[in-house]
Design goal:
With 351 residues, the protein is α/β, with parallel strands linked by helices. 42% of the residues lie in helices and 15% in strands. The chain has helices at 7-10, 37-43, 61-74, 87-99, 114-122, 134-147, 158-164, 166-175, 190-205, 224-227, 249-259, 268-282, 291-302, 325-328, 341-347, and strands at 33-35, 46-51, 79-83, 102-108, 126-130, 151-152, 181-185, 213-219, 262-266, 311-316. The protein is globular, with a radius of gyration of 20 Å. Bound molecules: ligand F0G. This is Threonine synthase.
Length: 351
Amino acid sequence: THQWRGIIEEYRDRLPVTDTTPVVTLREGGTPLVPAQVLSERTGCEVHLKVEGANPTGSFKDRGMTMAITRAKEEGAQAVICASTGNTSASAAAYAVRAGMVSAVLVPQGKIALGKMGQALVHGAKILQVDGNFDDCLTLARALSENYPVALVNSVNPVRIEGQKTAAFEIVDMLGDAPDIHVLPVGNAGNITAYWKGYKEYAADGPAARRPRMWGFQASGSAPLVRGEVVKDPSTIATAIRIGNPASWEYAIAARDESGGFIDEVTDREILRAYRLLAAQEGVFVEPASAASVAGLLKAAEQGKVDPGQRIVCTVTGNGLKDPDWAVAGAPQPVTVPVDAAAAAERLGLA
Ligand code: F0G
């Protein structure tokens, strides 16, 4: 009986752990790489989705969190803290439980999806809603970790990036090489940094013969990397990437430039269109921020930037169940029927 052991055991030789490191895991990673039929037809390419919503807490954050909480435990920390738009806090709360630690999370008031808040609550995190945005939360989290006995587990903690780079390893292990293009949503810019690091390592001394071009997409109302300046009051329906001053700014620019890629923006309307397409035509339910990668790919294709015949991977970062409001909003109301087959068949258009 074999099951995936989690990213630390699966990629132990490429991660900063020793034989005595107390590994804290929920067996994250090993997520599906799903061929995307409709997106492939639309672009004339071979498009795959890396479905990170299949991780234990429903987002890619678990890859970094298994490393961050493991390291915190190794160093004897009893409490961890993070700033979050929701997914990092859900993941930190769950892994802190596994490690027997206290978790504290700082979230922007009124701007995190209900499912994510529910996760932090049910895992017993201490939650503070901050009267400010994510960037303010991160400033506060850094100050607390510098002045009080609590370890910071945001992606400014370099071991988070180490854990997250394993997604690139998995893709190369599945495909036999790196894709031509890798597409990601970008918020705080940790994940694009991590993927690029993973691809570079695997091309330098691993099984990859080449490296992909990195394409990142921010939401138009929260696109500091596209504008080239901090966005003071970021806005977007994709609350996970509502960030105006990404912590990994320079690393994201380096990933873009070293790979010959680009970072562009997509509107909320484009995000929601991709969100619905993924669910209705690919069978993959993601949260709105995740759809920014696919929205970006479709936008680039419409602009003629996508040469046919390429192999493309889009990471879809979080599970749709985290923020179901957008699935329900604008959808037709289900009809009520009596317990009567003829009536039900009529309503279903079968009769
Ligand atoms: N997609 C989802 C679902 C996210 O939760 C995030 C970031 C991103 C994309 C962007 O990734 O920040 O590495 O560029 N969420 C963080 C959080 C900010 O607090 O959960 P990034």
